[in-house]
Amino acid sequence: FTIQSYLDCDAEQNDIFACGSHYVSGAYKGLVARINNNGTINDHQSFPNCLFYGIKYVVEGSYSRLYVVGKHNSGGAFIFKTNAYGSGNIVWQRRLGTSTSMRWTSVDGDGSDVWAVGHAPSSDGSNYDIIIARYTSGGTLERQMRFASSGHDFAQKIVVDGSFIYIAGQTTNLSAGGGSEMFLLKLHKNLS
Q: Which residues pair with 15 in a beta bridge?
């Protein structure tokens, strides 16, 4: 198989976990793979009706978990939690929204909660807004937020550090002219 696009990866001591999408039987499908440090693919799993953009390896107590984010082909931002090793069974999955343009692009966790960030069309459909959500490790949506300027706003990456989350992305709401500008947003982990 070939990972075609939107590749993201995370690692633990001996393995790299990668996600993306691949083209199979006339359609793109989400793909998650576990690759050892010698480059050998140990496991991979294909998921129909999804495209994946972000992956995060998280230790929750004595469990190794993967959080994978992207979009569902029939609409909405899609997140799921799976076991990092063994069967790869999905522990839980959630879909937020219905727009086919809505997607999560990045995910991070702290062992208790998980945060996803992405973008969605604005309410009038003229721009894209940043969307952020916080889920418990059990899959309960605790809070969601939307940030919007007068231009297109795209969140590319989220990082959890201590009591804060950091979101990097780009906007076309320009203060210095040009085509687009980058931004870095700092929020408290409870999204306040």
A: 36
